[in-house]
Amino acid sequence: MPRTYWIIAISLGAVVVAVAITLLVIWFPASSPGWLLARRAGSAVDQRFTVRSGETISVIADNLKAAGLIRSAWGFKLYLKLSGKVIVQPGLYQLSPAYPLPRVANIIASGSTANVTVTIPEGYTLAQIIDTLVAKEVAVATEFTAALKDFAPDYEFFKSKPADKSLEGFMFPDTYRLIKGEPTEAIRMMLDNFGVKYKDEIKPRLGDKNLYEVMIIASLVEKEAKTQTDREQITAVLYNRLEAGMRLDVDATVRYAINDWKKALTKEDLSIDSPYNTRRVSGLPPTPICNPGLAAIKAALNPPDSDYYYYLTDYDGITHYAKTLKEHTDNKLKYL
Q1: What pLDDT does residue 109 have?
Q2: d(Cα 171, Cα 168) in Å, to the nearest integer?
Q3: Domain segments of the chain: what residues?
Q4: Who has the most CB within 10 Å: 52, 65, 165, 241?
Q5: From residue 49, how far is each of 37, 184, 310 by CA, in Å?
Q6: What is the C-alpha to C-alpha distance for residues 174 and 335, in angstroms, rounded to an integer?
């Protein structure tokens, strides 16, 4: 027989042997090594099992055994090797002690995780983010409340944030792949994302500005502007008014105070007694009023020179600027 046929025959023989060993180990009676891969007796209640990025198969196997989800770490590794499934996917898995080992291995190798993709739009408040994550079953509201209360990471960008203030403003809007049942991990991912933007985009432009104040202004700009030109011009108006000692008169801060972003504001709303009511209180509101995107943050970091002190947005969404109160009043009569 030619050498080539011998090589093919040997290769096919090795495959047959591997398959035979796998079938023998899995389906052989309980008195044999097959019991290693059989389902465990006892509770069949699903458990959450996390595979973290960078974990080796040996570590995962040991963790599965420690969690009571498989009988043998060795059997788990052997099955993956013989079946050719040597790559496992990080994430949160719903597993049961009643699953036979092959099913556990196949679930983890296939990436059938309990993860969920969540998009956090620019300008969402912390409350809106929590509502979104709850709807996506990342966690229940009480778990998020507890996680936010206990979360105390040592991020450089928190140095300017008063200790008694929430994480509002720093939960960076983006699309995330989150683990169900892990609210703390969701919070950490959003803050880590902000940390990357801070290092690469914000800190180099910050200069002697106070980051927390920049984030407050950026949050106002995010809620008030739709285009980059308007983000820059509205930022300039806000800085001009602050420097002149004028009230900011930003309706979005009132909406934050009443937690309603849809209904038309009434006279009662605009006269509400709140430190967030910038129609009554001078200076910045106590905290950011949303979580702004990078474009609004950049505008707040580098406002253009401008003589404008007033602006309004007409019914078509176009913003009109004015240098004086008279010009602003004329714009109201003309566009509103």
Answers
A1: 84
A2: 7
A3: 3-110, 125-206, 211-335
A4: 241
A5: 18, 16, 55
A6: 35
Residue 222 in this model has a pLDDT that exceeds 50: yes
Cα–Cα distance, 190 to 157 (Å, whole number): 13
226 band by pLDDT with thresholds 50, 70 and 90: very high
| Strand spans (E) along the chain | 47-51, 91-95, 115-119, 175-179, 310-313, 319-322
Return the ∠ at Cα 82 (arms to 79 and 87), rounded to 5°. 75
Q: Identify the DSSP state of 194.
A: H
Two structure tokens written together for 308: 């404008």
Calculate helix-pair angle for 211-224, 228-244, nearest 10 degrees. 120
CATH level 3 topology of 3-110: Dna Ligase; domain 1 (3.30.1490)
Task: Judge contact between 70 and 61, C-beta under 8 A.
Answer: yes
* Span between the terminal Cα atoms of the chain, in Å: 93
